[in-house]
Amino acid sequence: MSESKPDKIEFKMLDYSTIDGDTVSFKLEDGTIVKVKVGIERVGVATNYRNPDGSLHYAVNTSVKVYVIPHDKRFTLPRSQVKGQAPLQQDDSSSGKRPPSHFA
Predict the structure, then answer these.
(1) Which among 71, 62, 69, 61 has a CA at the least distance from the CA of 25?
(2) CB 71, CB 27: distance < 8 Å
């Protein structure tokens, strides 16, 4: 006895909402915080297929983002990545010229 299985499984897209929040935070013994954010990109339920036990078949695409926040909350960037940065100039204190305060 051969069951006919579809060549392509069709899915109906489902809307979703978070229940308790999408982020879990952990504090490490050195004071560092690790945040893990889980999201659903797309979820659907099959319309022409069921699991072998008869239950609904779901397709879920997820994303996971990990953020590490050092205990001192400091980070560095290359100078070239800082926008609005004035070009480096030699300090000529005898001329009396000073850069604008927002370029300090």
Answers:
(1) 69
(2) no
